[in-house]
Amino acid sequence: MTASFLRRVRVAEIEPVASRIKRFRLVSTDGRPLSEFSGGSHITVCMQSPDRLIRNPYSLMGSPTDPSSYQISVLKVDDSRGGSHFMHDRVEVGTELQISEPLNLFPPAKLARKHILVAGGIGITPFMSMMSELDALGADFELHYGVRSLGEGAYCRLLQTHYGSRIHVYAQDNGELVPLERVLGSQPLGAHVYVCGPKPMIDWALRTATLAGWPDENIHSEQFAAPPAGKPFAVKLARSEREITVGGHQSILEALEQEGIDAPFLCRGGACGQCETGVSACDGYIEHNDHYLTDAEKASGKKIMICMSRISGDSITLDL
């Protein structure tokens, strides 16, 4: 996918659903149904701020069988790079936005005997559509949802009302934590576990599952992390003989897009591999922040994921 594959939508509804979290319902501006999607899918939302174009991925939450609208939830983050503040402060009912087509890098395994869903905070969002799909299929699943408090946990009561005993909520302010070792130790052979939430929680959950003997192919995770900030540096494009400056709060991909270069992307989170780019030279050290390249590929210094990774140094030359 490139930035050309976009569709215009209008915000039809905005609802505060928890502290610092709003739900947005999006409809097509041309009256045609939106594209169908599957549980766990996300879209990229394009936001035109005064100084730059922001593109953020958000999980689709509604029923995959209802293409009349899309629903996303956005957490307002204090150290936001602009996207969450834009959605909370500048978007209102009637605002028009551009979105990508749905993409699914976090689908439920069709042959799983049981599905164990583990969410932390805003990481609940991909599981909303996933549970809708699994429920319609009559699949066996349970959700374990960790929140700081019930006031900060989105959709807790809604989920418990709709899915009953399959929903387990743990509030930190009540001293409750997800008992993951016990949960993972009592599942049938052929079960799959899915994790979404803050990076420390994902790392803990993946480590716990591995130590509990779960095979890698039965462990799934998704994280939408923003590219980390750093010092500005230059990107030299070997084929087009151009040089572009990457700002301290920009990714390489964002800097290229700002200069009109339609670089390929899908997830914008360092997981899909679509934006993998060859490195011809690097005057510095590559800071790999992706989840796609192997340790050997990272150590070689010959590849970089331009949506998430940057350098500590003066310049990098890319095969573009």
Q: How would you portray this structure in words?
A:
The chain has 7 helices and 16 strands. It is an alpha/beta fold. It has 3 domains: 6-100, Elongation Factor Tu (Ef-tu), domain 3 (Beta Barrel); 114-222, Rossmann fold, CATH 3.40.50.80; 233-318, Roll (Ubiquitin-like (UB roll)). Strands 4-3-6-1-2-5 form a 6-stranded antiparallel sheet, covered by helices on one side. A 5-stranded parallel sheet has the order 9-8-7-10-11, sandwiched between helices. The longest helix has 13 residues, at 125-137.
- What is the chains' assembly state? single chain
What would you give as the CATH superfamily of the largest domain? Answer: Nucleotide-binding domain of ferredoxin-NADP reductase (FNR) module
The CATH topology of the largest domain is what?
Rossmann fold
- The low-pLDDT segments are none
Shape designation: globular
What's the number of structural domains?
3
Query: Describe the biggest sheet?
Result: 6 strands, antiparallel
- Sequence of secondary-structure elements: EEEEEHEEHEHEHEHEEEHEHEE
> What's the count of strands?
16
End-to-end separation: 16 Å
Task: Report the β-strand fraction as a percent range.
Answer: 25-35%
CATH class (first level) name of the largest domain: Alpha Beta
Radius of gyration: 20 Å
On the 0-100 scale, what is the average pLDDT? 92
Going by helix content, strand content and strand pairing, the class is: alpha/beta
* Portion of residues within helices: 10-25%
Major sheet strand order: 4-3-6-1-2-5
Count of runs of 4 or more consecutive helical residues = 7
CATH architecture type of the largest domain: 3-Layer(aba) Sandwich
